[in-house]
Design brief:
- There is one protein chain.
- With about 475 residues, the chain is α/β, with parallel strands linked by helices.
- The chain contains 18 helices and 16 strands.
- It has a seven-stranded parallel beta sheet with strand order 10-9-11-8-7-12-13, sandwiched between helices.
- It is globular.
- The two termini are about 30 Å apart.
Length: about 475
């Protein structure tokens, strides 16, 4: 039996129950437990439980906010999104100050390179966050869409309706922009969201979440539609993974370790996202200049993101002439090449290291790339099947037949011909900002925009039919 929400705490007369804000403040507890010291002590002891009680209260608030949002019209949601975008812009100085503290703390802890890039905010990035929120305003609201319908032989009318997921939990790492992206997407889809970011970005996330809640308040929507879990301990993360009574779905966004932990430990249903061991395969018929441009872009334009390429596969017939050109472009960007013996022989004179079995399965998220020479298209596809993560894969080729075979046989969320894997992105796919890249096949796959944050229910209208 599901535990009741805060508003249904035992010991309080039903006709005198108040909302969760009053309970969180202690006002109603004090009022209704006066003279009942045992109940007071029981409640106080529960509040000391590793933050679990406050997490449950947040879950209850999210559930209640989700009920309101499910019936909030498009115009009201869009007004709230505009207010959030404006609030982010107004709070720029506070957000940057908080982010500077996070970056300084990260560097002091020995974090460097791509991870610092992911954590860092600039005025341009904050403007991009606000712009991303406004782009979501322009998206079609999927809630309320009649997806299909038919008439039963007995006369009943049966329709499938698109509805919000409800209360969504998101656990993510040190990327503060996820806070605004996730909040805006969930709001547009009519969902409340409970956010738990990494400890490295906690100050930034708190400043961003405060601005978002200011925007919600200004627009007259429940501020608890967006809540940030400020306790970044592992215990709280594990407790959040088990909030089945309050969360309808949990979405992890981060590296392989985080995603594996959530998938293995959560009892809340999980949508698995985005470990990206992405490949570029240069076919025998590929144009060398195109192959070099695509590979350098896919690896170096932003190496710390999940759609960056991590492994380069080159057909043996073209490797001798094409691989040095590609390697030269990568070397200019400071990329370390982890090469198989055949690739290393071709790249004699380039700075390379010997690849190990581990390299083929590694998502570097940095300026490193595994390089392998393959005998055929079939060997490339087999390699991808063995080591890929189902995210984004690319073939560079002039052969229509090879392109068709690659797209038909490679099992991934996004399969490219002659284009960089860096396009696997909600904005680039016309979905607006994304909640993540789903690499599983249920409930959705690929970039998750507003539509992917909904589910369905059936509406059946009859006139007294019985079975």
């Amino acid at each position: 039996m599901a535990r009741r929400c805060t508003a249904d705490r035992p010991g309080i007369p039903r006709n005198r129950r108040a909302g969760p804000e009053a309970y969180a403040s202690g006002r109603v507890w004090a009022e209704h437990t006066a003279g009942n010291r045992h109940l007071v002590n029981t409640l106080l002891n529960r509040e000391r439980m590793i933050g679990l009680e406050s997490l449950e209260i947040m879950g209850c608030r999210a559930k209640q906010a989700a009920r309101t949002l499910a019936h909030t019209g498009t115009a009201a949601k869009n007004a709230a999104l505009e207010a959030i975008a404006s609030a982010l812009e107004s709070a720029q100085d506070a957000i940057l100050a908080a982010n500077a503290q996070d970056v300084d703390a990260a560097k002091a802890a020995g974090i460097t390179g791509a991870m610092v890039d992911r954590l860092s905010l600039t005025p341009a990035r904050i403007a991009g966050m606000a712009d991303g929120v406004r782009q979501i305003i322009a998206l079609t609201d999927p809630v309320g869409e009649i997806m299909e319908g038919h008439r039963h032989p007995n006369g009943m009318k049966i329709q499938k309706l698109r509805v919000p997921l409800g209360a969504v939990g998101i656990i993510y790492e040190a990327r503060p922009n996820v806070t605004s992206d996730a909040a805006a997407l969930c709001l547009k889809a009519g969902n409340a969201v409970l956010l738990r970011g990494g400890k490295e970005a906690i100050r930034s996330n708190m400043a961003i979440a405060a601005a978002i809640r200011d925007g919600l308040a200004a627009a007259g929507l429940p501020v608890d539609a967006v809540q940030l879990v400020e306790d970044t301990s592992r215990e709280t993360a594990n407790a959040m993974m088990r909030l089945n009574e309050y969360l309808d779905v949990l979405i992890p966004r981060g590296g392989a370790g985080l995603i594996r932990s959530v998938v293995q430990n959560a009892t809340v249903p999980v949508i698995e996202t985005g470990v990206g061991n992405c490949h570029i395969y240069v076919d025998a018929s590929a144009d060398t200049a195109m192959a070099a441009a695509i590979t350098v872009n896919a690896k170096t334009s932003r190496p710390s993101v999940c759609n960056a390429a991590e492994t380069l596969l080159v057909h043996q017939d073209i490797a001798g002439t094409t691989l040095p050109v590609i390697a030269a472009g990568l070397a200019e960007k400071g990329v370390t090449l982890h090469c198989c013996p055949r690739a290393a022989a071709i790249l004699d004179g380039f700075p390379t290291v010997a690849a190990t079995e581990e390299d083929w399965a590694t998502e570097y998220l940095d300026l490193d790339m595994a390089v392998r020479v393959v005998d055929s298209l079939e060997e490339a596809i087999t390699h991808i099947a063995q080591y890929g993560t189902g995210h984004s894969e690319c073939i560079v080729t002039d052969s229509h037949q090879a392109a068709e075979a690659f797209q038909d046989q490679v099992d991934a969320a996004a399969v490219y011909v002659n284009a960089s894997t860096r396009f696997t992105d909600g904005g680039e796919f016309g979905l607006g900002a994304e909640i993540g890249i789903s690499t599983q096949k249920l409930h959705t796959r690929g970039p998750m925009g507003v539509r992917e944050l909904t589910t369905v229910k059936f509406l059946i209208n009859g006139s007294g039919q019985i079975r």
